């Protein structure tokens, strides 16, 4: 009888150990699945951040190139405007010079007319 009780007790202990081992394995499996799901979720976020960073880097490089081109074009425009401004100044100088020459020519013409009118006309012809 004692031997039968001992065997029953050992059998129940073995069942409990097996049940406990089964639950331990299930808990490990569930924890592993949870960990993998969390890691996968984080990896998706990290991967998206990496993709976004690459896109931003590309956009920054493109913007730098465009800014450099715009700067060069602006420098050309400034040079053209300065040249145009200089040409306008030269035209203004030529205009002033032409007015000065015109005034001198009128003065000379007036003097010649005065001299011509002041001389007696010859009747030899």
TrEMBL record:
What GO biological process, any one, is recorded here? surfactant homeostasis
Region of interest (Disordered), residue spans? 1-22
GO CC entries: BLOC-1 complex
The record's Pfam families line, in alphabetical order, gives: GCN5L1 (PF06320)
For this protein, what reaction is catalysed? L-lysyl-[protein] + acetyl-CoA = N(6)-acetyl-L-lysyl-[protein] + CoA + H(+)
Belongs to which family? Belongs to the BLOC1S1 family.
This protein is called Biogenesis of lysosome-related organelles complex 1 subunit 1
Name the species this protein comes from.
Fundulus heteroclitus (Killifish)
Its lineage reads: Eukaryota, Metazoa, Chordata, Craniata, Vertebrata
